[in-house]
Design a protein that fits this description.
Layout (H helix, E strand, L loop, with lengths): L3 E5 L4 E5 L2 E4 H23 L7 H24 L1 H4 L10 E3 L5 E3 L7 H18 L5 H25 L12 E5 L11 H22 L7 H17 L18 H19 L6
Parallel strand pairs: 1-6
Antiparallel strand pairs: 2-3, 4-5
Helix pairs in contact: 1-2, 1-5, 2-4, 4-5, 5-6, 5-7, 6-7, 7-8
Length: 275
């Protein structure tokens, strides 16, 4: 019988200079934001829109993404812990048994929280720089956002986190750094692949120039991206959260359902041709 089992035991650090190291996860974030900025720049230049405020947009997006993702993890998945460790919500520290603190970095970021954070961040950005309607900006922003989501999931794969369920056969990835010997579904890669495909699809729709109301691509994005997330959750190991008292679906699926519905509504309301 053929085996498609992969032993995965990467170092979390790409390289070190003294005590300073570059982690793969951090690198994926840098790649995501860098590519996203350049994609937005090219779209603005193509449409002859000033790029003067794009650096400000990047600042809003970075802060909103990290803050939203962090708070999303805290409140959606692990409030039982953080309600007694409030200092750890926004500080990269962990409480030691003796009552002191140690630096650990941020270990919890939630994509649903990031989505909410980005939306709020862009609302604030557009109010300060009202050169285009909010929906127009979002129709373009969701394209690099989708690509960024794929790179973040690759970062999760390097960290051996957000893993899938055990496959029960010789197919899958053995996450050796977790002290395991049985293969799991590489749920991070399933999700990343789905996001890569969605990125090219959204890019195709944008380039084709469908004559719809502003916001149509946002609806497509919300419906498709969170549908991908919903499906991958079926093979993903539990991450906790309120699925403990709502066991019909995982926490990620419960959070995805309203966003899928909202995306369908947005597509329906923006389906008509612009006048």
């Amino acid at each position: 019988m053929y085996s498609l089992k992969i032993l995965w035991e990467p170092s979390a650090t790409l390289f070190k200079i003294g005590s300073f190291g570059i982690h793969y996860y951090s690198l994926m974030f840098v790649i995501a934001f860098s590519l996203g900025f350049n994609i937005m720049k090219k779209m603005y230049e193509k449409e002859k829109v000033s790029i003067e405020t794009l650096e400000s947009m990047l600042f809003y997006i970075v802060i909103a993404t990290l803050l939203g993702a962090r708070l999303g993890h805290v409140f959606f998945y692990d409030w039982a812990y953080y309600q007694d460790h409030l200092m750890e919500i926004l500080l990269p520290i962990s409480t030691k048994p003796d009552g002191g603190y140690t630096f650990v970095g941020f270990r919890g970021l939630a994509s649903h929280g990031a989505a909410i954070g980005i939306l709020l961040g862009i609302i604030l950005y557009q109010r300060k720089y009202p050169y285009k309607p909010l929906a127009w900006i979002l129709d373009r922003l969701i394209i690099p956002t989708t690509l960024g989501g794929a790179f973040v999931r690759i970062g999760n794969f390097f960290n051996s986190e957000i893993v899938g369920n055990f496959t029960g056969n010789n197919f899958g990835v053995v996450f050796v750094n977790r002290g395991e010997s049985l293969p799991r579904h590489p749920a991070q890669l399933y999700e990343a692949m789905g996001y890569f495909i969605l990125f090219f699809f959204l890019r195709y729709l944008y380039r084709k120039g469908l004559n719809r109301k502003d916001g149509f691509l946002v609806g497509v994005f919300m419906t498709a991206l969170f549908s991908i997330r919903f499906l991958v959750e079926f093979v993903k190991a539990s991450q906790g959260g309120f699925e403990t008292f709502l066991p019909a679906l995982s926490t990620g699926q419960w959070l995805s359902v309203p966003l899928i519905i909202a995306g369908i509504i947005v597509m329906y309301r923006t389906r008509t041709v612009n006048s």
